[in-house]
Amino acid sequence: MAIEHRRAPWRASALLGFLVVGSVLAAGSTQEPPSPTPQTAEDLKAKEVFLRVCGKCHPIERVTAEGRSRAQWETTIITMQSARAAVVTPEEFETILDYLTRNYGRESIIVPGAAGRGAAGRGPRAHVGAADRTRVDDTAAERGKKTYASECVTCHGTSARGTDSGANLIRSTLVLRDRYGSAIGPFLKKGHPMQTGAPSADLTAAQITDLSHFIWQRVNDTLQGSPAYDVKNVLTGDPTAGQAYFNGEGRCATCHAPAGDLAGYGRRYSPVEIQQRFVFPSAAGRGRGAGGAARKVVTVTVTAPGSEPVSGALVSLDDFQVALRDAKGEYRSFTRAPEITVVKNDPYTPHVELLDRLTDKAMHDVVAYLETLK
Length: 374
Fold this sequence. Notes:
Elements: E1 4-7, H1 41-54, H2 60-63, H3 70-84, H4 90-104, H5 138-151, H6 153-156, H7 173-177, H8 184-189, H9 205-220, H10 239-247, H11 265-268, H12 271-279, E2 299-303, E3 310-317, E4 321-325, E5 331-335, E6 341-345, H13 349-354, H14 360-371
Antiparallel strand pairs: 1-5, 2-3, 2-6, 3-4, 4-5
C-alpha cells in the first residue's frame, strides 16, 4: 500500500555544501558566526534576509563554512531550488547572493595559522567537513615536505597525485582515512620502499605526523575554496570540429540554434561557464538553461492502485521514496512499491545521455565553437 505524507508548502531556502548535494540537514540555530569583514548597513539588511530564508532549515554555520566565488554561491542556491524545491523570490536571490559573495566569497575567508599560503593565508575554513577532519598545521606540513621530498616525491609526484611508479595519494582511501598519521603510520611501519633505501619503519612518529599534515595540505589544495585551486584555460578545442559535432554526432542542433537560443552565447558567458552549461545544463546559470532560456523543471507522475495520478516538480527520487511538490506547492512523498508507477520527465535527458559518448576532445571542440557565437 502506498504511504503518502503531506506537508505545508516549504518557504525556506537551504543553501548547502557542494554541487553534489547530500541529504537535507535538520533545522538548527540561526545564529550566524562573526562575519570575517565589518558589515555595512546594507549588509545588515541583507543579513536579515539571509537568516530568515536560510536559517529555518539548518545551522547558518553550515552555509558559511567555506568561502566560494560568486558563481559557486549562485550555483549552490540554484541547486537548492532545483534539487530541494526551495522557494526563493528573485529579490531574495539577488540579496542573498550579493551578501554571501561580499562576506563569504573565496577571498574573504582567512584561516588562522595559514599565513604565507596564497593571499593572506586564505583558504578552506578549518572546521569544514567531518568533525574529525584533519586540521592542517602549516608549520608541520613544511617539515613534512622535507621528508616527502627526500623519500616520496619520485614515486608519488610533486603534488602527491602519483606517477607511473606510485599511487595517487590525493585519492588514496588510506590517506583519506588518515588522521595525523593514524593510518599511514602503521602502513609505513610495516615496511614501504623509500627513495634513499632507508627502512620506512625507521621514520619517527613525529616525522609521520608531519608527513600526514603535508599530504593533507595537498588534498585541501584540490578544494574549490583553496587559493591553490585554479581553473585552467578550457578554450583549447577546434571550433570547426566543434561545429561539425554540434550539427552531427552530438545532435545538439535538434534542440538548439546558433541564430536562436544560442545567439550571442560566446559574448554572454566565459569559456568556463560555456563548458559548465554544455556538460551540466541543469546546474548552470541562475534561472536559465543551457541556451539562456527559462530553466526547465524535472517533473514526475506517481500513480498508485485505485488512486488518481499525482504530478509535480520532482524533489527527490531513490529506490525507497519519491517526493514531489504539486501545482499548489504542497510537498507530497510516497514509499515506492512494485504496484506504484513512477514516471520521470527530465528535459535534460539528452544532455545526460550525451555524457555516455562525449569525449574530452569533442567537449573542448564544442566549447570552442560556442565561444565564437558572439
